[in-house]
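A brief tutorial aside. Many learners find it easier to grasp structure tokens once they have seen a single protein encoded end to end. The record that follows does exactly this for Helix-turn-helix domain-containing protein. Read the sequence first, then the structure, and try to relate runs of similar tokens to stretches of the chain.
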Amino acid sequence: MSMITRKEMADMYGVSYSTIRRYLKAIGIDNPRRISPKEMKQFVEHYGEPDGWE
């Protein structure tokens, strides 16, 4: 997986950009413009996979 934007991530989860920002901040990912694969893995471990994600 390559880096994705917070907007792309919000679309994947079906939530708003600001919700994703809050979720990321809650797990210590505070300021990235793009989410790295490592950060995405950390997010998925905490919040689970989005529907239809492979």
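Self-check: The longest strand covers residues 4-5. If you spotted this yourself, you are ready for the next section.
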